[in-house]
């Protein structure tokens, strides 16, 4: 997964010229790293670029039972859809539910269950994709608890950020590590590249 700008892919991101559809990315002077493609839409033209496939949770944020186009959104449905539209090397995001409304606890339970199931399904059915679990919480400590449950965490942050966050982590019983503290820039990039090649990937939404 490369860091950079991933614009959202729309349903009809093209212009017509002499009866042909010309994708907007062919008109850009500078190309983005990749694109974000939501399950909530079906694009007429998809670029041959790295793509982050998203579950489209913003579209069902007001529904207590998440659905898209009349279909219940869960890990199994998402894996099936990602098999249809993703390619080798693409990033696929597990279904999640925004923590809004009154039924927060039910949404939190949904998020945790879907993350666990999705990561396991991705290993079996889409081993050449990169699965991401999205961590939600109403506070930093809540997000850390969920992240700790799903995957051991190492925070890669600057000194000023660590000064604020480390006391919170230590209060909650976490051990903090700074694996790149004494590494040169080239060594840091090599370390990050190696870690990103591991099977489990996690997005910490803080």
From TrEMBL:
Domain spans labelled DUF6884: 153-194
Domain of life: Bacteria
Entry-linked InterPro entries: DUF6884
A matching Pfam family: DUF6884
Name of the protein in question: DUF6884 domain-containing protein
């Amino acid at each position: 997964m490369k860091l950079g700008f991933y614009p959202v892919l729309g349903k009809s991101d093209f212009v017509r010229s002499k009866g042909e559809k010309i994708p907007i990315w062919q008109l850009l002077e500078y190309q983005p790293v990749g694109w974000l493609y939501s399950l909530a839409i079906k694009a007429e033209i998809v670029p041959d670029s790295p793509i982050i496939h998203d579950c489209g949770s913003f579209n069902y944020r007001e529904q207590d039972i998440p659905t898209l186009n009349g279909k219940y959104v869960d890990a199994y449905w998402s894996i099936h859809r990602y098999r249809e539209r993703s390619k080798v090397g693409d990033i696929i995001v597990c279904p999640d539910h925004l923590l809004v409304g009154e039924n927060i606890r039910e949404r939190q339970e949904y998020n945790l269950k879907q993350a666990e199931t999705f990561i396991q399904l991705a290993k079996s059915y889409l081993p050449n994709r990169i699965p991401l679990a999205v961590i939600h919480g109403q506070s930093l400590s809540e997000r850390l608890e969920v992240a700790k449950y799903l995957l051991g965490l190492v925070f890669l942050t600057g000194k000023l950020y660590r000064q604020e966050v480390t006391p919170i982590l230590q209060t909650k019983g976490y051990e903090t590590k700074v694996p790149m503290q004494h590494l040169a820039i080239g060594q840091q990039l090599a370390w990050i590249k190696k870690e990103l090649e591991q099977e489990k990937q996690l997005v910490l939404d803080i």
